[in-house]
Amino acid sequence: MKIYPYPSIHAEQRVKETLERGLGFTKQDQEAVEAYLEDVKKRGDEALVEYTNRFDSDKVTIDTIQVTPEEFDIALKSVDAAFLKALDRSASQLEQFHLRQKENSWIDTPRKGVVVGRLVKPVSAAGIYAPGAKGGKTPLVSSVLMGGIPAKVAGVPSIHLMTPPMENGSINPHILAAAHRTGITSVFKAGSAWAIAALAYGTKTVPKVDVIVGPGNIYVTLAKKLVSGTVGIDMIAGPSEILIIADKDANPDFLAADLLSQAEHDAMASAILVTDSQCLAENTVAALSRQIENLSRKEIAKKSIDRFGAVLVVPDIETGIELSNRLAPEHLELIVKDPFDYIDQVQNAGALFLGPYTPEPMGDYIAGPNHVLPTAGTARFSSALSVENFIKKTSLIHYSREAFQKEADDVIRLAETEGLYAHANSVRIRK
What we know:
The protein has 16 helices and 14 strands. The protein is an alpha/beta fold. The chain has 3 domains: 3-22 and 238-368, Rossmann fold; 27-77 and 122-233, Nitrogenase molybdenum iron protein domain (Rossmann fold, 3-Layer(aba) Sandwich), CATH 3.40.50; 400-428, no CATH class. The protein has a 6-stranded parallel beta sheet, sandwiched between helices. The protein has a 5-stranded parallel beta sheet with strand order 6-5-4-7-8, with helices on both faces. Helix 2 crosses helix 9 (218-227).
């Protein structure tokens, strides 16, 4: 990992590379995803099972693609007590946090004879996607919780989980245990773009949903992008990223470990340290070089660090925060003295982690806030997955005859100014 003084030409080039790295898909990727979507839309279950057989498991059939109650029972008996304890802590703390996000409908009478308000209601059905990873051997249990819990808190009555099966045609029991804890009983054995297509368009077996959320590979991301508008989605998620702002007293071993926690995701991930201490910069690079050799995913981490990693030495912490606001990182760690003093200066970040004992993985699994976060600079205008992704807000309006008469002429004038004479007549005819 290289060290750059900031501001400088070379530092600016590295920042530019990070900002412009994009989603990393090709024209061929998009064409392939479009074909999968269209095929599932036309052939439904037949296409869904065909792709699942080809890419994940030849044991899955139309009759077995949905997880049965018996499979849930087997899964719950096969996971250990320590996992269930950790799962329950995570789910409970996520529920507590997301309950704070609930909104109520409201009605107001701002003027005599006028009633306005907003009706807040959940969508009818939601689809949660959870990657299986490595043929289901490294299940993303947290994705089940992060998608399912805000949907449950929102009051969505019908929630369906899509996740790829293991080679033997079953779902990893840890995924099913997480679904059970979340209250999701409708689980289907399918992954990638064809799973997203089934949720977006519906099949004979898979219900059509209103919203699809959850992370995935580039095919999942592209599929969500293409069905957006047909259904709601959480976001178009790019590669993972972390930016750490640290002062001279930070522990370089901590910093190196936190940078690698994101670099190991994929070769497009970004891991950047910003510090006002040249000594800390050098010690962190040395610590990272030692730690990376012990990672099972060290080749991926090395590519990420080489392409999009950097240590930027700034004149002061305030300059570091200005730079961070430009990058709008998915994860921002403030490992400085009195980190709460800097909160007001942070304008753009998906999630903010304060202090040396708040590494990013605490937010990934157990802290309470959602870990599905805006990436690629989109924290400038978007937010974490929340209860709000699963609700609709309907405006409510009522006028009495007297209130209508009082305001009608102003509506007529505004409508005719816009050239919308039928609008004006809709009001005039009632006068």
